[in-house]
Amino acid sequence: MSIPRIWLNGALVPADEARIAPTDRGLLLADGLFETLLARAGRIIRLDRHLMRLLEGAAVMQIKPPYESRTLRAAARETLEANGLATNDRASLRMTLTRGPAGRGLALPQDPTPTLMISAAAAPAPPAGLSVMVSSVSKLATSPASPLKTLNYTDNVMARMEADAAGADEALMRSADGGIACATIGNVFVVKNGSVTTPPDDGSIRAGITRNDILALARDADLSVSEADISMETLKAADEVFLTNSLWGICPVTTVDGTALPAGPITKKLAQALEEAWASDVV
């Protein structure tokens, strides 16, 4: 089996030879950002949107990316090809940007040298359905990091630990008022009487790229769409629930806290619309 290759700071290197400084702030302080992307037969879905989000997040965190977007576009494709994934039906890419190595403590380095790494792997088909549980972990809108795709996933990991302990596939994280904010690895939607609702982009969630696709597609389909708080009562009364992220697209929720839920017609309709939109890249 061939050794995977990593694009690291401008060069493709075997993964077992890739070296990141032990003083890198991404490792020590989670001081960085990342993007996860899906490639279908070599075509990277929503690449420009992911790059834009990465660069916008870097601007907020005052990390100057060491490469321009056009270089990162080429690097992503080179990484796919170097790993023999350019013809795979599904492959995943991860771009990771950190502030780079620095001295001890929180003080920012005077002359930073950010780290940029891209890795690739084969991606399985999305699950046919997911069992979810409601976690005790909350997302806080007061944190400036909440809407950014930072390396700090401690809350998400702890919520996933609760899901694992409960025998569920995924966890739903709470909002500050005790409602539902998001899943650990994506956004959440509920459907009731044909109306589609997802929590608002109020700072407590990461408003995903696929989430935005679904909102646009639902409106194009003349569905009633709202960005509003989802209470526990709303979740329990939902006709359909589904999750979205950039690797799965849409994944139906088939069990909530042990209660079975069908993968309904709205979920299926939007999943098909998303598949077509990604195939033609029109959203």
UniProtKB/TrEMBL annotation:
Gene3D superfamilies: 3.30.470.10, D-amino Acid Aminotransferase, subunit A, domain 2
Enzyme nomenclature, EC number: 2.6.1.42
Tagged with keyword Lyase: yes
UniProt record, GO biological process: 4-aminobenzoate biosynthetic process; branched-chain amino acid biosynthetic process
One term under GO cellular component: cytosol
UniProt cross-references to InterPro entries, sorted A to Z: Aminotrans_IV, Aminotransferase-like, BCAT-like_C, BCAT-like_N, Class-IV_PLP-Dep_Aminotrnsfr
Entry superkingdom: Bacteria
Pathway(s) this gene product operates in, as recorded in its UniProt entry: Amino-acid biosynthesis; L-valine biosynthesis; L-valine from pyruvate: step 4/4; Amino-acid biosynthesis; L-isoleucine biosynthesis; L-isoleucine from 2-oxobutanoate: step 4/4; Amino-acid biosynthesis; L-leucine biosynthesis; L-leucine from 3-methyl-2-oxobutanoate: step 4/4
UniProtKB keywords: Amino-acid biosynthesis, Branched-chain amino acid biosynthesis, Lyase, Pyridoxal phosphate
Known cofactor(s): pyridoxal 5'-phosphate
Entry GO MF terms: 4-amino-4-deoxychorismate lyase activity; L-isoleucine-2-oxoglutarate transaminase activity; L-leucine-2-oxoglutarate transaminase activity; L-valine-2-oxoglutarate transaminase activity
Catalyzed reactions per annotation: L-leucine + 2-oxoglutarate = 4-methyl-2-oxopentanoate + L-glutamate; L-valine + 2-oxoglutarate = 3-methyl-2-oxobutanoate + L-glutamate; L-isoleucine + 2-oxoglutarate = (S)-3-methyl-2-oxopentanoate + L-glutamate
Enzyme class: transferase
CDD domains: PLPDE_IV (cd00449)
Record-stated family: Belongs to the class-IV pyridoxal-phosphate-dependent aminotransferase family.
Function recorded in the entry: Acts on leucine, isoleucine and valine.
Protein name as it appears in the record: Probable branched-chain-amino-acid aminotransferase
